Amino acid sequence: MKRYLILLLYIFTCSCFYGQIRWNQQYQAYVNQYKDLAIEEMMKYRIPASITLAQGLLESGAGLSELATKGNNHFGIKCHDWTGQTISQNDDDYGECFRAYNNAYESYEDHSRFLSQRPRYSRLFQLDRTDYRGWARGLKACGYATNPRYADKLIEIIELYRLYTYDRANSYDKFMAKRSGTDQPVWVDGQTRQLHPIRMYNKNYYLIARDGDSFKSIAEEVGIPARALARYNERDRKDVLSNGDIIYLKKKRKKAEKRYKKQLHIVKPGESMYYISQKYGMQLKYLYRKNNLSPNYQIKAGDALRVY
């Protein structure tokens, strides 16, 4: 069922390529996750961050395409003179060869080198990095994609998600840039472990705990003291973590995202006030305050709670 739902979401996001583009949360989540990496690449290679993000969104279906999920290829780059890992995919022809990477970070880096080292794209680097329209049309003219509306789609995405704001960035979050696109194994607590993917929500970073995780092991991985991590998540540092627990890496906010301003959370069976506070990335005490509830109140299924 999970795979089926992911497929439906991918089909929905990809449909934006052919029809009128509409805002959706999966696209925004992708932007939040990779924007700092795109800015880092822009500062190294002078490719507008907006173009990198828009291409990543289109080519990978916001990270849900088979090329992205199986080969970490976010930009649809074919093999050409590639000597690294490969993956086969039907495209213009059956079973075409595409580049494959160990992680998304490598894909972003190779995309930058691919554009900057090939003569046919050289004229694009004469454009200002804020000229995303010129870059979009130039990519199409230089043959990056065969879709006749490729440039228009890039521009539509850039303007809908305001990606052009990142083209004027003079700094970026180095922690997020380094971690957002890699899942390389590291040595933690005496054993080799895979890094947890870092996500962003409600202006905060978070990861999802796995079986065997503790605040201590996560602290060693992300470089934040275990005591501070526990405090950010309103828990004791010795608490046993469960698979699927949301662990925030900074202090939570006083309210949910603005899009929930006019929405109420309807409590479902089994939910607790703490669970709801983690779900929306807000501090537990403010969830009580916003709803004029005492900490002793026992919520029940069907209760309507303000989160903004």
Structure, described:
The chain is an alpha+beta fold and 308 residues long. The protein is built from twelve helices and nine strands. The strands form four sheets. It has a three-stranded antiparallel β-sheet. It has a two-stranded antiparallel ribbon with strand order 1-2. Helix 2 packs across helix 3 (49-60), helix 6 (132-141) packs antiparallel against helix 7 and helix 9 packs across helix 10 (226-232). The chain starts with a helix and ends with a strand. The relative contact order is 0.09.
Describe the structure using short key phrases:
308 residues, alpha+beta, 3-stranded antiparallel sheet, elongated
Unreliable segments of 5+ consecutive residues: 1-8
Helical/strand content category: alpha+beta
Number of DSSP E strands: 9
Tell me the number of helical segments per DSSP (H or I, 4 or more residues long).
Answer: 12
Helix and strand sequence? HHHHEEHHHHEEEEHHEEHHE
Strand order of the largest sheet: 5-6-7
Compute the CA-based radius of gyration. 21 Å
> How far is the first residue's CA from the last residue's CA?
32 Å
β-strand percent reads: 5-15%
Average pLDDT taken over every residue: 89
> What percent of the residues sit in helical stretches (DSSP H or I)?
25-40%
